[in-house]
Amino acid sequence: MQPSHEKPPNARSTRNATTTAQRGEAAQYTLPARLLRLLSLLQSRREWSGAELADRLEVTGRTVRRDVERLRELGYPVSSTTGTAGGYRLASGKNLPPLLLDDDEAVAVAAGLLTAASGSVTGIEESSIRALAKLEQVLPARLRSRVAAVSGATVPMVVRDGPQVDAATLATAAAACRDREVLSFDYVKRDGTAQPRRVEPHSLVAVVGRWYLIAFDPERDDWRTFRADRLHGLLATGRRFEPRELPAADAADYLRRSIADAPYRYTARVAVRAPAESVREHLHPLLPGRVSATGADSCAVELGEDSLSQFTRHITALATLGAEFTVEASDELREQLRAALRRGLDAVG
């Protein structure tokens, strides 16, 4: 075998190669831009490995470590773990650090704050106004006009008709969904009794003033739907879980199906002389799945509620269609509906 005449790299060539790589990194992002990009990545996901961050930023792992240290010096609580499963995460700190929002996110947050007072989350109205004032103060000119347009055209109306949910409950549940963390709580059932539960949360779904938690219950080996206003003593346990595949197209679809199949105190079948599609458009967002066509110009609606007042609202909504319909229900329910509707008619004279 012929001896190799290839010269080993000397210190100068190694330094040149390192300098070239560093210049390539500098050309990709300036230091401030790279730090902002790193911060944005850390805010978008719970945890990142050093290799993933280096790949996203197109820098070396050593540069990532230096930039993380710079963020810490600026007050951002970036924690790190070593080993094969190690990585970086933006931890919670004593003070709230600045958040990075793109244009659409900033406008979406402003719009959400504007309408928060009319929602079903308790104790959030005044906080929403303060947060909106702070946001508008720092918005760039190109976005301030967009937010002002939404603000000028929006008049929130506080509605307290439905169940109220504590903001802290929603925040804890949402974080557990994101971080794949087991939740424990006492769930108050329809009869008023409470039952301890430990679940793997998947999603929160908001429908016309009501919040629902979609989660897998390992003890029952099945998926469950929970009313968020009935979650008491909600606690994130710190225990992680591997996500499971939801047996539906999405969380909203699962919620519609689970509510349609649930047992109710009041049930009825309503035959309507109108096309199924036109009836679906006039019903509560969770009801269209209960409408089935019985002909080209007729359909049937399966209704179920625990509240007589809510049941009466569904009947009233069907009445506004201007189509003939008949209610097939128990004699007790029919009599209660007649009494409720009669009181409404008597009130208008």
Question: Could you explain the architecture of this structure?
Answer:
This is DNA-binding transcriptional regulator YafY. GO terms for molecular function: DNA binding; DNA-binding transcription factor activity. The protein contains twelve helices and 13 strands. It has 349 residues and is α+β, with helices and mostly antiparallel strands. The longest helix has 18 residues, at 11-28. It starts with 10 loop residues before the first helix and ends with a helix. Mean pLDDT is 80; it is low at 1-9 and 11-27.
Set out the fold topology.
Elements (H helix, E strand, L loop, with lengths): L10 H18 L2 H14 L5 H8 L3 H13 L4 E4 L5 E4 L12 H13 L5 E2 L2 H14 L2 H13 L11 E2 H13 L1 E8 L5 E14 L2 E8 L4 E6 L3 E10 L10 H11 L4 E7 L3 H6 L9 E5 L2 E8 L2 H12 L5 E4 L2 H17 L2
Parallel strand pairs: 3-4
Antiparallel strand pairs: 1-2, 5-6, 5-9, 6-7, 7-8, 10-12, 10-13, 11-12
Helix pairs in contact: 2-4, 3-4, 5-6, 5-7, 11-12
Task: Name the descriptors.
349 residues, alpha+beta, Arc Repressor Mutant, subunit A, SH3 type barrels, 4 domains, five-stranded antiparallel beta sheet, disordered N terminus
